[in-house]
Write a structure and sequence with these properties.
The structure holds 3 protein chains of 3 kinds.
Chain A: H1 3-33, H2 40-58, H3 62-85, H4 93-118, E1 133-135, E2 138-140, H5 142-164, H6 166-176, H7 178-184, H8 188-213, H9 221-235, H10 240-261, H11 266-280
Antiparallel strand pairs in A: 1-2
Helix pairs in contact in A: 1-5, 1-6, 1-8, 1-9, 1-10, 2-3, 2-8, 2-9, 3-8, 5-6, 6-7, 6-8, 9-10, 9-11, 10-11
Chain B: E1 5-14, E2 17-27, E3 32-36, H1 43-50, E4 58-63, E5 66-67, H2 73-79, E6 81-83, H3 96-106, H4 114-127, H5 143-155, E7 161-165, H6 173-188, E8 192-196, H7 200-206, E9 209-214, E10 217-222, H8 224-228, H9 231-242
Parallel strand pairs in B: 3-8, 3-9, 6-7, 7-8
Antiparallel strand pairs in B: 1-2, 1-4, 4-5, 9-10
Helix pairs in contact in B: 3-4, 3-5
Chain C: H1 3-26, H2 29-54, H3 63-78, H4 83-105, H5 110-130, H6 132-135, E1 141-142, H7 149-171, H8 174-191, H9 196-222, E2 224-225, H10 227-231, H11 233-246, H12 252-269, H13 276-290, H14 301-307
Helix pairs in contact in C: 2-7, 2-9, 2-11, 2-12, 3-4, 3-9, 4-9, 7-9, 8-9, 11-12, 11-13
The chains are: A mainly alpha, B alpha/beta, C mainly alpha.
C-alpha cells in the first residue's frame, strides 16, 4: 500500500466521519418527527461558515469552534422547529409528507439563496495545522486524526446521551412509538424541539470540521442532503451504526473516485452507491428486512 | 379430498421474536372458524401469512391444494382470499363506491366488464348496508360504516375465503348484532369465513370451530363450548391478569 | 360529474383553444413567447402530477425527463434528422430511462423517494457535462438555426392539450383508480390485487412522455440549451411548485398554478432581480404550512372549479367537510 493510498484512506475516513456525524443528526430528527429534513445539508454549510467566520475574525481554532457552534445551532434548531415544523407535525402521514417536503425544501432554497447573496465566494479550508505524525513510515496529518477523534467522541457522547438521560430516552421512545410516548406523558413537542436542535447542532458541528479540509460553497446544501440520504439508505433506515458505517463507505468511495477518476465524477458516486444498494439490498447494510 | 385451507407447520420469526410456532390448521369449507387468544398471540400475523402479506419463516400455506405461502398478496387475492383489517384501512379519500371498485376491478381473477362494474359495486354496497353512502368519502364514514366498507371491498373480490380481523371490536351491541347477521349471510353465499375475535359471545354464536393461540402457539382447538372451558385456555387469558410479571406484546 | 356540467368545460376549452390559435395572427409576438414558456411549464406540471399527485410519489426529479428529452432531440437534430424523428427518439430514450430507474427508485417511499429523485437530476446533469464529446459539455449544445417560434407555439399547445386529455382519461380510468389507491395505502392496494410495482413503473414512464416531448420542442425552438437551463433548479422546481400551489392530485390544479406563478413571475420577478430562489422557497414554506392542498381546494376557488366540471379528485386533503360530490362512473 503506497503512502498516497493511506493518505487517501485517511481522508476518506475523515470525510466519511463527517458525513456520518451529520447523517446521525438527520436520522434522529427523522425518527422523532417522521420528517426527512431536506434542509439538513444547509446546516452543515452554515456551521462551516460560522466556524470559518470565527477563525477569520477572532482566530478561534476549529476544534473550539466546533464546540461553540453547538449551542448556537441548538437555539437555531429550536427556532426552526417552532416556526416551520411544529405546525405540521401531527398531520396524517400523506399530508405530512407533502407539507414537510414543501416546508423543508422551501427552507433549503431560502437559506441557500440568502446565504449566496451575502457570501459569494467559496470558502476554502482553514489552514490550521499541528505537526504531522509519522506512523509506520507514513506521514499523516495529525490535524486529521484529531478531528477524527473529536468526531468519535461526539458520536460516543451522543450515544450515551440517548441511552442515559431522560431527554435521550424520550427521544428514543418517540421514535419507537409516538402514540405510546404520548400515553406515557412525554411532552412530544418539547422533546421534538430538543431532538431537532441536536440534529442541527451535529450537522453544524460536522460543518465546522468540514471547512478545515474542504471547500464550502453556499449551494452545497442540497447535494449534501442527497449524500446524507445515500448514507442513511446504505446503512439501513433506522440504524445509527449503519449511518456511521454508511458515512465511512461513502467518504472513502468519494475520495477514491475523485482521485482515480477525476474530481468531476465524485458527486455521482453517492447516487450510484444509492442505486446499487437499492437494487442489491434495499434494506441497507444494517436495516431490518420486512 | 384436499382440505380447503391448510397451514402446515407455519412459523414466523421477526428478528429475535418468534411470533408463530408450528401452526397446523385445517379449515373446513363454508364453515365459520374462529381464532381467539390474548393480545400479542400472533393472530393477525397468521392472517398476514394466510393472505400472502407476509411469508412464513417455516412451513407452508395451502389453499385449495395450491401452495400460496410465497405468492404475494395480489396473487393470493385473485386466487380467492380477501381480508379486513383490525384497525380499519379504507382508501380514505376515495368514495365508498371507489373503494369497492378497487376490489372489483383488481381482486378478481376475471374482472367484470365496464358496464357491469357500477351495478355490481352498488349491489355489494347495498348488501352491507351502505347503499346510500356510495358517493361519500371513506374518511367521512362512521367506524361501523368503515368496517362494513372493508367487508364490501373484500366481498368485491369474489373471495372463496374471507378473513375478518376483529370486525366487531369497537361496535355497540346493535351494530354487533347487525354485523353478525351480515356474516351469516356471507356464509349463506358459500363463502368460508375465518374470524379473529375477542368478544366470546360472537365466537360462541357464529363459529363451528375455534382455534386458540397463545404466544404464537396453538394451545387448543375444537367446538366453542369445549374450548372455552379448557383449563389451559382459561389459564392463558386469566393468567395474564394474575401474573404481574407478564407483559403482553401489542 | 353530471352530464350538464360536461358541456360547459368543453365549450370553455374550445373557446380558449380558439383564442390561443388565433394569437399569432394578431401579431402579439411577445405574448407568443410568453405563452410558449407557460405551456412548457404547464406540460411539466401536469405530467409531474400523474406520479406526484395521483399516485402520491413526489418525483422531484421530473425535469430529468425534460432535460434528457431536450438533449436527445438536440443530438438527433444535429445528425440531420427532422423534428418528428428527433421527438420520437427523445420520447423513446427517455421512456427507457424512466423504466430503468423506476426499478431501484420505487424501492424508496415518501421523502426518501422525493430526495432520491431530486438527486437523479444532478446525476444526469453531471453525466451530461462529463460526456463532452456527445453533448458539448458545460458549454451547451446548439441545434440547426431557424425561426420556428410559431410552429413550436402550436406544437406545444397541441402537446399541452394532449397532456390534459391524458391526465383526464387517466383520472377516470381503472388505471387511475389504481394509482389513487396506491397513494392512499399501497400495502392495502396490493392486498386487493393491484399490481403496484408494475403500475408504479408504468405511471413513471407515462409521465415521462409529455416531459420529454416538451424538452424536444423546447430545444428545437430555442436552438441552444446548456445543462443549467434544462437541469437547473428553476426548471426542476417551477412545475412542481405550480402543481402544488394550484392543487396536487387534481386536473385543474396544475393549470391554476401555472397561470398564477407565471403571472407572479412576470410582475414581481422582473422587478426584483435577486432572491428568486429565496422567494420560491418562501412560497413553498407558506404552501406547506397553510395550504398543502393548493389553491384549488380553498373556499374561493373550489366552487368555481367544481362548477366548471373539473371537480373530481379534489377531496384528497379535505378537512372533513361533506360537500356535494359528483357521481362516480
Amino acid at each position: 500500500m503506497s503512502a498516497d493510498f493511506i493518505q487517501l484512506l485517511v481522508g476518506g475516513v475523515l470525510l466519511g466521519g463527517i458525513y456520518g456525524l451529520a447523517a446521525f443528526g438527520l436520522s434522529i430528527t427523522f425518527g422523532v418527527l417522521n420528517v426527512l429534513n431536506l434542509a439538513h445539508g444547509e446546516f452543515l454549510m452554515l456551521g462551516a461558515l460560522l466556524s470559518y467566520g470565527l477563525f477569520a475574525a477572532l482566530g478561534i481554532n476549529p476544534f473550539v469552534a466546533a464546540v461553540v457552534v453547538i449551542p448556537v445551532f441548538m437555539v437555531l434548531g429550536v427556532g426552526f422547529y417552532v416556526i416551520l415544523l411544529k405546525k405540521i407535525s401531527d398531520k396524517p402521514p400523506h399530508q405530512l409528507l407533502t407539507a414537510s417536503i414543501l416546508v423543508t425544501l422551501g427552507a433549503s432554497l431560502f437559506i441557500e439563496d440568502v446565504t449566496s447573496y451575502f457570501w459569494d465566494r467559496p470558502v476554502t479550508g482553514i489552514s490550521y495545522s499541528l505537526p504531522p505524525l509519522e506512523l509506520a513510515g507514513v506521514v499523516i496529518s495529525s490535524t486529521r486524526l484529531l478531528i477524527l477523534l473529536f468526531i468519535f467522541i461526539l458520536a460516543f457522547a451522543m450515544q450515551i446521551y440517548l441511552r442515559r438521560t431522560y431527554v435521550g430516552k424520550s427521544i428514543r421512545a418517540i421514535t419507537q412509538s409516538r402514540e405510546g410516548a404520548k400515553v406515557v406523558g412525554i411532552p412530544i413537542s418539547r422533546i421534538s424541539a430538543v431532538a431537532f436542535s441536536i440534529g442541527m447542532a451535529l450537522a453544524a458541528s460536522a460543518g465546522a470540521f468540514y471547512v478545515t479540509l474542504f471547500t464550502v460553497t453556499p449551494t452545497m446544501g442540497i447535494p449534501l442532503t442527497i449524500k446524507y440520504l445515500c448514507v442513511v439508505v446504505l446503512g439501513g433506515l433506522g440504524s445509527i451504526v449503519g449511518s456511521v458505517l454508511g458515512g465511512l463507505i461513502l467518504g472513502v468511495a468519494e475520495t477514491m473516485t475523485a482521485y482515480y477518476c477525476g474530481a468531476e465524477w465524485a458527486p455521482t458516486i453517492a447516487f450510484i452507491l444509492l442505486i446499487l444498494i437499492l437494487v442489491v439490498r434495499p434494506e441497507g447494510l444494517f436495516g431490518a428486512k420486512k | 379430498m384436499t382440505c380447503f385451507l391448510e397451514c402446515k407447520g407455519v412459523s414466523k420469526t421477526f428478528g429475535g421474536i418468534k411470533a408463530l410456532t408450528n401452526i397446523n390448521l385445517q379449515i373446513e369449507r363454508n364453515a365459520i372458524t374462529g381464532i381467539i387468544g390474548p393480545n400479542g398471540a400472533g393472530k393477525t400475523t397468521l392472517f398476514n401469512i394466510i393472505s400472502g402479506a407476509m411469508t412464513p419463516t417455516e412451513g407452508e400455506v395451502l389453499f385449495m391444494g395450491k401452495v400460496t405461502s410465497r405468492m404475494g398478496p395480489a396473487r393470493v387475492c385473485r386466487l380467492g382470499i380477501a381480508r379486513t383489517y383490525q384497525l380499519v384501512r379504507p382508501f380514505n379519500s376515495l368514495t365508498a363506491m371507489e373503494n369497492v371498485l378497487i376490489g372489483l376491478g383488481f381482486g378478481r381473477s376475471r374482472p367484470p366488464s365496464r358496464e357491469d362494474r357500477s351495478m355490481e359495486a352498488m349491489e355489494i354496497l347495498r348488501f352491507v348496508g351502505l347503499g346510500g353512502k356510495a358517493t361519500h368519502t371513506a374518511e367521512d364514514l362512521t367506524l361501523v360504516e368503515k368496517k362494513h366498507l372493508e367487508i364490501a371491498r373484500a366481498l368485491a373480490t369474489a373471495p372463496d375465503l374471507l378473513l375478518l380481523d376483529e370486525v366487531v371490536s369497537g361496535l355497540n351491541p346493535t351494530e354487533v348484532l347487525r354485523t353478525m347477521d351480515t356474516i351469516l349471510q356471507i356464509q349463506a353465499r358459500g363463502i368460508t369465513v375465518i374470524m379473529i375475535e375477542h368478544i366470546l359471545k360472537v365466537v360462541m354464536k357464529l363459529c363451528k370451530k375455534v382455534v386458540v393461540l397463545n404466544y404464537g402457539v396453538q394451545i387448543a382447538e375444537g367446538v366453542p363450548e369445549e374450548v372455552v372451558s379448557d383449563p389451559e385456555v382459561i389459564q392463558a387469558y386469566i393468567g395474564k391478569f394474575e401474573d404481574t410479571g407478564e407483559t403482553s406484546h401489542a | 360529474m353530471n352530464r350538464r356540467g360536461k358541456r360547459l368545460p368543453f365549450f370553455l376549452i374550445v373557446l380558449c383553444a380558439g383564442i390561443l390559435a388565433a394569437l399569432p395572427f394578431v401579431g402579439v409576438s411577445y405574448g407568443i413567447v410568453w405563452i410558449f414558456l407557460l405551456a412548457v411549464y404547464f406540460v411539466l406540471a401536469l405530467s409531474y402530477d400523474i406520479v406526484g399527485g395521483y399516485m402520491g410519489y413526489m418525483n422531484l426529479g421530473h425535469s430529468t425527463f425534460f432535460g434528457l428529452g431536450a438533449y436527445t432531440a438536440a443530438i438527433t437534430l444535429n445528425q440531420g434528422f427532422h423534428l418528428a424523428s428527433a421527438l420520437v427518439v427523445a420520447v423513446l430514450l427517455t421512456a427507457c430511462f424512466a423504466a430503468m430507474v423506476s426499478y431501484p427508485l420505487f424501492r424508496l417511499r415518501g421523502a426518501y423517494f422525493a430526495l432520491a429523485t431530486f438527486g437523479l437530476i444532478s446525476l444526469v446533469e453531471v453525466l451530461t457535462i462529463n460526456l463532452r464529446d456527445l453533448t458539448g459539455g458545460s458549454g451547451g449544445i446548439s441545434t440547426p438555426p431557424g425561426n420556428h417560434m410559431v410552429t413550436a407555439y402550436y406544437l406545444i399547445l397541441v402537446v399541452a392539450g394532449a397532456t390534459m386529455a391524458l391526465s383526464h382519461f387517466i383520472a377516470r380510468s381503472k388505471f387511475g383508480l389504481a394509482l389513487f389507491s396506491i397513494r392512499e395505502d399501497e400495502e392495502v392496494a396490493q392486498a386487493f390485487g393491484v399490481p403496484t410495482s408494475l403500475y408504479k413503473g408504468l405511471a413513471l414512464i407515462i409521465s415521462s412522455v409529455p416531459a420529454s416531448l416538451a424538452g424536444g420542442i423546447y430545444v428545437w425552438n430555442m436552438t441552444y440549451i446548456s445543462p443549467p437551463s434544462v437541469f437547473g433548479l428553476e426548471i426542476a422546481l417551477s412545475p412542481i411548485v405550480m402543481a402544488m400551489l394550484g392543487g396536487t392530485g387534481t386536473m385543474a390544479g396544475p393549470l391554476v398554478g401555472a397561470i398564477f406563478i407565471t403571472m407572479v413571475q412576470e410582475f414581481l420577478w422582473t422587478k426584483v432581480p435577486y432572491f428568486h430562489l429565496a422567494m420560491y422557497g418562501l412560497v413553498l414554506i407558506l404552501l406547506g404550512l397553510f395550504l398543502p392542498g393548493g389553491l384549488v381546494r380553498t373556499r374561493w376557488i373550489k366552487p368555481i372549479v367544481g362548477w366548471m366540471g373539473f371537480g373530481e379528485e379534489i377531496d384528497y386533503f379535505k378537512k372533513s367537510e361533506t360537500g356535494k360530490m359528483g357521481e362516480t362512473p
